[in-house]
Specification:
The protein is of the alpha/beta class and about 350 residues long. The chain has helices at about 5-15, 25-30, 35-45, 45-50, 55-60, 65-70, 80-85, 150-165, 185-195, 210, 220-225, 245-255, 275-285, 310-320, and strands at about 115-120, 120-125, 170-175, 200-205, 230-235, 260-265, 290-295, 330-335, 345. The chain has a 9-stranded mixed beta sheet. Helix 8 (about 150-165) links the parallel strand 2 and strand 3. The longest helix is centred in the N-terminal third of the chain and has 14 residues, at about 5-15. Bound molecules: pyridoxal-5'-phosphate and iron/sulfur cluster. Pyridoxal-5'-phosphate (PLP) binds near residues 116, 118, 119, 122 and 342.
Length: about 350
């Protein structure tokens, strides 16, 4: 069979069986790499090279999509994508100053199940507690998701909280990763938000377009669109190697849908704490149509101390990238301070 013949055959099958737009990404979600053995096999590394810890993985399991693993460099145990997901012994060391809730997201900041409201004018809706990938430095790795899950009725009371507060002009879908939710659930939530007159902007904080780019489909983009709302997608990418051709395509689809597309990253020791990696990340993102938004100092979450880069070094790196890149490719260097009215920018 020649190439043209097989393409025709494919078209026929698409025409007869209605395509399920969620099929590919849901299949990728069911086929995650969750064992060190699978990781070793994919990366051609011996188990002793990996630096694996069963104990660390018990507290926060290994979870990484195959397409993200495919972007790691085989044979390199220090690969910057691998180090973001690998459960290692260093996580088990207790470090003073590192705790379960570094950003102050419980108590008054959590006024309703599934809502984190810390800043004026905008709040987070925790759509789901799950993610396609487990990032070892995640500041919500100890978050009480079980206490923040909403039933259908509770969602409606969460929406009442937003309806009652006319100062809220922006709702940020977060999690977990909000795009783990299906298109129908997202479409319903967005439709409800669009009916609240003071809500003008919808923001989505997600890593899925980076880790499973097939998640971005026309159906998803329609679900996140409304004539009443401007939509902003903030992806999370820490190293230029994360952005391959498929990820670029996903980004282009988002932009072609008229959405603003920004990136936030975390400054991580051993992963992107050098000028070449940070400059490369901004340039790669811009080639793919994304503007850098924030570069976060690590939130001091228990288990992640080995990723910390000091504020002084972060500022020095930031000065160097500012002296290298055009201003629009320099992310704002920020730190989250519990109780502060916004992210705190580090002085230059
Ligand atoms: C980071 C964050 C936001 C968004 O802050 P921006 O500076 O607008 O990007 C909103 N609410 C909470 C609770 C946050 O942690
Ligand atoms: S995708 Fe985001 S929320 Fe999920 S583990 Fe990674 S940093 Fe945490």
């Amino acid at each position: 069979m020649n190439a043209i013949g097989s393409r025709n055959r494919q078209q026929v099958s698409i025409a007869t069986a209605p395509a399920d737009p969620e099929r590919d990404w849901r299949a990728a979600m069911r086929d995650l790499v969750t064992s060190p053995a699978a990781l070793c096999e994919a990366l051609q590394l011996g188990p002793e090279q990996l630096g694996w810890s069963d104990e660390a993985a018990k507290a926060f399991p290994l979870r990484v999509p195959r397409s993200f693993v495919a972007r790691m460099v085989p044979g390199d145990p220090r690969d910057p994508l691998l180090l973001q997901v690998l459960a290692g012994d260093l996580e088990l060391q207790a470090t003073p100053g590192f705790g379960p809730d570094p950003t102050g997201e419980t108590g008054a900041a959590n006024p309703h199940r599934g809502i984190i409201h810390k800043y004026r004018g905008r709040l987070l809706l925790l759509v789901t507690g799950s993610c396609a990938i487990h990032c070892r430095y995640c500041f919500r790795r100890h978050f009480p998701y079980a206490d923040n899950q909403n039933s259908r009725d509770e969602w409606s009371s969460a929406l009442d909280y937003i309806r009652r507060d006319p100062s809220i002009s922006e709702v940020i879908l977060s999690g977990g990763d909000p795009l783990v939710a299906g298109d129908a659930q997202l479409a319903e939530l967005v439709a409800q938000l669009a009916m609240i007159p003071h809500v003008r902007r919808l923001r989505v904080h997600t890593r899925l377009p980076v880790v499973i780019p097939q998640r971005v489909t026309p159906e998803l983009l329609d679900a996140l669109s409304s004539p009443q709302l401007q939509t902003v997608i903030v992806v999370h990418c820490n190293h230029g190697n994360e952005v391959d051709g498929e990820v670029s395509t996903a980004f282009r689809m988002i932009r072609e849908h008229g959405m603003t597309l920004l990136n936030q990253s975390v400054l991580l020791a051993g992963i992107n704490d050098n000028v070449a990696a940070l400059v490369g990340l901004s340039e790669r993102l811009f080639e793919a149509g994304v503007l850098p938004y924030y570069l976060h100092l690590l939130d001091r979450v228990a288990g992640a101390a080995h990723f910390e880069v000091s504020a002084e070094r972060a500022q020095a790196l930031h000065r160097e990238i500012s002296a290298t890149l055009p201003g629009y490719l320099v992310p704002r260097l920020v730190r989250e301070v519990a109780g502060a009215p916004a992210k705190v920018m580090l002085p230059v």
